[in-house]
Specification:
Distance between the termini: 14 Å
CATH superfamily: Fido-like domain
Low-confidence stretches: 242-247
Helix content: 55-70%
Radius of gyration: 18 Å
Mean pLDDT: 95
Largest sheet: none
Number of helices: 10
Structural class: mainly alpha
Strand content: under 5%
């Protein structure tokens, strides 16, 4: 599953350093698409163009303040994730809570960055998250498994997402936080951040539930692998005039 990813990554590395303006335009597009899709998965009704306008500081009539804050907060969370990567800071529970605090800032201050103190269900999912009294133990185990993981970097990032959502440590914002954590890990290992598209929401949820209830991870790994391949090809299409189809 990862052979194509490794080949594309090796090819991209051969073009480094990448052109400055190319990197800038790719980054602006990534932040917009990542923010739009991640929020849309969770029910935010801002369109892609409306999300762009909100990130530019303009208010959209007819849209709730929560939806505006969800876009603004997500952009700030991306900025924080990128700073963690740039500074090569370790992955810790403090990082997890800080990302979540940004996601819920001005939306739910009482629960922002705070593990839940009650039990919850995931709407539409077969899996039931653990009792809240087990969260400290399970989050410690999540960090331990992450640090001891020996497989491919993309698999580690995907498993981090799967395991985090299975624990569901916060009352809200777990999905957005999970996707930010997955991309944080991908970027720390030199891979491209991926965008899980809102249009793929059903297959995304089904793959997660399959992983959580049956310990079958291939569907989710394939979804992330395809998204990574798409992200790498997007960069290569701009920096390699010969194209990337032959890799």
């Amino acid at each position: 599953m990862f052979t194509k990813i490794d080949a594309l990554q090796e090819k991209l590395n051969s073009f480094r350093p990448l052109p400055k303006n190319t990197v800038k335009s790719l980054h602006e597009q990534l932040v917009l698409e990542w923010t739009y899709n991640s929020n849309a998965i969770e029910g935010n009704t801002l369109t892609l163009k409306e999300t762009k306008v909100v990130l530019e500081g303009i208010t959209i009539g007819g849209k709730s303040m929560r939806e505006h804050f969800e876009a603004i907060n997500h952009k700030e969370a991306i900025d924080y994730v990128e700073a963690i990567v740039s500074n090569d800071e370790p992955f810790t529970e403090h990082v997890i809570k800080s990302i979540h605090q940004l996601i819920l800032k001005e939306i739910d201050s009482d629960n922002a960055g705070v593990y839940r103190k009650e039990n919850v269900l995931i709407a539409g999912a077969e899996h039931t998250p653990p009792d809240h009294i087990l969260l400290a133990e399970q989050m410690t185990a999540l960090l331990k498994e992450y640090n001891e993981f020996k497989g491919h970097p993309l698999e580690r990032a995907a498993r981090l997402h799967i395991d985090f959502v299975k624990i569901h440590p916060f009352v809200d914002g777990n999905g957005r936080t999970a996707r930010l954590l997955m991309n944080l890990d991908l970027m720390k290992t030199g891979l491209q951040p991926v965008v899980i598209k809102a249009a793929d929401r059903l297959s995304y949820y089904e793959a997660l539930d399959k992983a959580h209830t049956l310990d079958q991870f291939d569907d989710f790994l394939l979804l992330v692998s395809n998204a990574e391949e798409e992200a790498l090809n997007k960069v290569l299409a701009l920096v390699d005039s010969s194209g990337s189809a032959n890799v």
